[in-house]
Amino acid sequence: MSLSSELLLKPPGRGMPTAPFLPMTRAEMDRLGWECCDVVLVTGDAYVDHPSFGMAIIGRLLEAQGYRVGIIAQPDWSSAEAFKTLGKPRLFFGVTAGNMDSMVNRYTSDRRIRSDDSYTPGGEGGKRPDRAVIVYAQRCREAFKDVPIVLGGIEASLRRVAHFDIWSEKLRRSVLVDAKADILLYGNAERALVEIAHRTAQGEKPKAMTDIRGTVLVRDRVPEDWAELDFSQIETPPATLKGDRVVVRLPSFESLLGDQVLYAQSSRVLHQESNPLNARPMVQRHGDKEVWIAAPPLPLSTPELDGVYDLSYARAPHPSYGKAKIPAWEMIRFSINILRGCFGGCSFCSITEHEGRIIQNRSEASILREIAEIRDRTPGFTGVISDLGGPTANMWRLGCREPEVQKVCRRLSCVFPDICKTLGTDHDPLIKLYRAARAVPGVTKINIGSGVRYDLAVKSPAYVDELVRHHVGGYLKIAPEHTEDGPLGKMMKPGIGSYERFRDMFEASARKAGKKLYLIPYFIAAHPGTSDQDMLNLSLWLKRYGFKLDQVQTFLPTPMSLATAMYHSGHDPLRPVRREGGEVFTAKGLRQRRLHKAFLRYHDPENWPILREALQRMGRADLIGPGKHQLVPRGSR
Length: 637
Hints:
The chain contains 24 helices and 25 strands.
């Protein structure tokens, strides 16, 4: 066990009392008797002291280690003044954009500015800058130029290497380079953060800490005692070099600028080197510097994860917000996160790139303690827990049954194209957890609000029965994403037949329970690999089953995902990428993307003109008319 693991399980503390809330003003620091903060955290979210908000976890974790931590939430970034609010931190600034990438937070898939922000009091938009990590880091440097800057959170994590950015339609450098920070933490960063804090307190410079997992640094060169393995050798066995000090050489930022195939190849290698049990460090040249990406962090053990969730959270927004509602807090205030990570590996999703494929589980006892905390401390609790979930509702305690296989596995997904034969799919522990949660005094209902992975659920009819009988209200959200094999293959999602098997089981269980329940499916328009014909087929499927969707999603290329590599390069990184062959079509023009979205909302009169035009162009004018089998009515253009 590493030093940082021991510290997470047994934090030393220094006799410092727990702050009711981490201070956001000098007046609060004075009331606590602090002359200065050891660490100042800067975030693009409002400060909610709850374990669903990353800055609260980081702040309380450092507090448990004996450090004085202050928070600057959603500062005015027009100057450095707001970044001086709490004075000069003794150790470092911790900078994050918040729980969301700031560009995803502010812009729709059509690149329109969103009018609201769920992580802001009153849902008000415009309270964080574009590329918040870069802007905040610059202002921290202006405020106190000699204080180290540590980047973290999902925006930094997904932009840790050269990446395609849809909002500028170009490749961008590692955010660490652009932010001119000292070190970047990616993934599950608790251990790395604790180690950096203690070593900084002992006089080390964060930018010199080259031996910590889950970190990114800028270095002048690769050390002479490290052997380099070129990325092109990964696909050609033997793709190994003897010894522990081997680093994978990724294509340089400059070489990727004019070579989209090279970008797809690089993206594939990046994801192949993601299993923390066998992944090697990687290095990528940016100009005259090397961006050094250490091996991914090892998953937190159950006792470590329990410790994170058992910290002294106030479980409420900071009092300075008064009665203003923070939508993200209202959504999760009665919900509980029971796991981290996802082994689904959906190509459009960023969860795997950030939290990893190995599931990290909380213990049943820790989960039940949090239910009691909600019951006893959260205003407005009526007995209903809104969710026991996480990235996926039903992956708790699932994972590889063969440790020796897991150590060498380099699959991009444990469930695609088929469920791996070594993956455990036993839902009995989860059923037991549900029953124990329902038995907590004061709890009248446990809903499951996170998405259910239906290809796993069908392996356990008892789980589907339990879910339907006790944990679904009027409807259950589920995400087949498409009906056609072409786009589903590029999404790394199971075929629609798997969804239909779950639907049949769900409906049978509902009838047996005497309940009238509905599945609400989610679909994606304009995903790489999706043709107009695919969207038409999906639209006809929706009409056949009577679905009239209100909310639909158009594919948004987010940094570092495999689907984004397809979008940018036109090639498929789910398999070895060649110069010729393997091309992937993607709807990119605004008009075609809107057409794909219109197919999902065929029932909306505003979409009928564009659908009529498309159906005539596709030779399917027979689908225009008043018949039940027809998609849109006749009318003028």
